[in-house]
Amino acid sequence: MREKTNLLGYFYISPYIIGLLAFTLIPMAISLYLSFTDYNLLSSPRWIGGGNFSRMVSDDQFWQSVRVTFYYVFTAVPARLVFALAVAIALKELNFLKGFYRLVFYVPSLIGGSVAVAVIWVQLFSKDGVVNAFLNTLGFNIDFSWIGNPSTAIWTLVLLSAWQFGSAMLIFLAGLQNIPKDYYEAASVDGANAWRRFVRITLPMLSPIILFNVVMQTINGFLAFTPSYIVTEGGPMNSTLLYVLYLFRRAFQFSDMGYASAMAWVMLILISILTALIFSSSRSLVHYEGKGD
Amino acid sequence: MTLTKTKLLPIAAQVLLFAFSILMLYPVLWMVFSSFKDNSEIFAKSFSLFPTEWKFGNYAAGWKGFGSYTFATFFKNSFIVVLIYTVGAVLSSAFIAYGFARMEFAGKKFWFACMIATLMLPQEVIMVPQYIVFQWLGWVNTFLPLTVPSFFGIPFFIFMLVQFMRSIPAELDNAAKIDGCNSFMIFYRIILPLTLPGLMTAAIFAFYWHWQDFIGPLLYLSRPDLYTVSLALKMFSDPDTSSNWGGMIAMSVLSLVPVIVIFFCFQRYIVEGITAGGVKG
């Protein structure tokens, strides 16, 4: 009998195991091997030991992409989450037009990753685009393209990311609705003002969800590709060269497969370390409710 | 706090919120209205939303596409890829989830942990070796790299459906077993129908993630007759292939129509999906 359920269980999950091997584990093994080789798809891989990694250390473009990516992640992720939390709190108190706002704020998340929006973003921030037209009517005299300027280009991508705060907002909203009302009532009776109620009740009760959002958004931030590929094409002067874009170029424009594989592993290790850091540093900050019941 | 302050604040907040929502929606509105503007008007009066004269010419001009391929080809390709992907993803994920939710077997915990680990694994990490493998298989310039992997389950959907199936009472399975159903009959006669809302959520997400997928088609499709809509839009927007902004904006709007339609029809499932598992994006 036991034998039989063993077999049946494996029968049902067999597609997953086959897929895991074929599309994840074997490619990962290949990737690990290639990261120690020089491989251009045409001739067979040539073992060069740690050559790719030492090349990375002296590769200016690599460091530029690391800088740009960190800058992007540490501006875009907080911006997105602050918007998401602020709007969620505002919507929670609202009983008028709530559904409408939830919809309007979610639409950017729904379509923000698409090529269509990226293409439109280029138009909005171009020299004759809507943003400049608006600023000029306010009396600013701006005659440059935000996308063509090395010091502003990255901000068009940060804005594009912050604009898509909707799905994080929905997660926060669901979390806020789970906080018992009596907590707030008791605090009000004790004379706590709105700010104290936010710091002492909302933040601790929401902390597991905040942690979840921070982790997910940080990982996604490191993997951003489409915005820099379409909106800014990594430029001007590599000012928006995100890590995945540089990896993509090394692999598929220069057929530098060994180097690109090494870059992928560096990124995986980096993301793992960062996730572990976020989890361990949050241990004292995150509050888990109701372990007893 | 004084009385006036508590009364005024909500009104001020309301106004602020409304202004903010218009600002958030502005890029979308601009895109939609510009698609009806004359080419010369789009940038000349870019700030004003409404066209002086409503024109549908951009849609006709954009639809012609480029090369000898119209957007009919690109939309057809997108629908083929996305429908196969969605069907594969939902059916295989449900099948696998049933194994995890209802079967007891040695090593189950290990495989479940594996699945959670792959849930977090960035696809970008295996982008290069996957490409190499698919190239060896001769799958470049076919839809296979974009569709076949979905038939082996999508970890996020498996996870979600396992949660769903666990909430179905086991008494139903036992009753069916007594009536002579084998495990597969229980799966498709009892578990599948009862998991329908979960399957819907999975299908909607599969559709709308994959509809907007760009990096996959960019890697594997280099022949214009195979382009999906998102890839075609990118090629269409390159300044050296076209300066037809009106047509490009019109096609951008059109490319978002399926996503928006699905969203409005199935809003409830989407909100549930995001808040239940915490979806990416």
From TrEMBL, chain A:
Q: What Pfam families has UniProt attached to this entry?
A: BPD_transp_1
Please give the superkingdom of this protein's source.
Bacteria
Q: How does it sit in the membrane?
A: Multi-pass membrane protein
GO cellular component term of the entry, any: plasma membrane
Residue ranges occupied by any ABC transmembrane type-1 domain in the UniProt entry = 66-278
Transmembrane ranges, per UniProt, are 12-36, 70-91, 103-124, 153-176, 197-216, 228-248, 260-279
Q: Which GO terms describe its biological process?
A: transmembrane transport
Please tell me where this protein is predominantly located.
membrane
Which keywords label this protein? Cell membrane, Membrane, Transmembrane, Transmembrane helix, Transport
Which InterPro entries would you find in this protein's record? ABC_transporter_permease, MetI-like, MetI-like_sf
Localisation: Cell membrane
Query: What family is it from?
Result: Belongs to the binding-protein-dependent transport system permease family.
Family annotation (PANTHER family): ABC TRANSPORTER PERMEASE PROTEIN, ABC TRANSPORTER PERMEASE PROTEIN YESP-RELATED
User: Can you say what this protein is called?
Assistant: Sugar ABC transporter permease
Organism, by scientific name, is Cohnella thailandensis
**Classification of source organism:** Bacteria, Bacillati, Bacillota, Bacilli, Bacillales
TrEMBL record, chain B:
Question: Which CDD domains does the entry mention?
Answer: TM_PBP2
Coiled-coil ranges per UniProt: none
Pfam family of this protein, just one? BPD_transp_1
Q: Where in the cell is it found?
A: Cell membrane
The membrane topology of this protein is: Multi-pass membrane protein
Keywords carried by this UniProt record: Cell membrane, Membrane, Transmembrane, Transmembrane helix, Transport
Q: In the UniProt record, does the keyword Iron-sulfur occur?
A: no
**Gene3D superfamilies linked to this entry:** MetI-like
Asked if Transport is a keyword of the record, the answer is: yes
Transmembrane regions listed in the UniProt entry: 12-33, 78-98, 110-134, 146-165, 186-211, 245-266
Naming one, the record's GO cellular component terms include: plasma membrane
Instruction: Give the main location.
Output: membrane
All copies of the ABC transmembrane type-1 domain together span 75-266
A Gene Ontology biological process term = transmembrane transport
Entries under InterPro entries matching the protein? MetI-like, MetI-like_sf
Q: Which family does it belong to?
A: Belongs to the binding-protein-dependent transport system permease family.
The protein in question is named: Carbohydrate ABC transporter permease
Organism this protein belongs to = Cohnella thailandensis
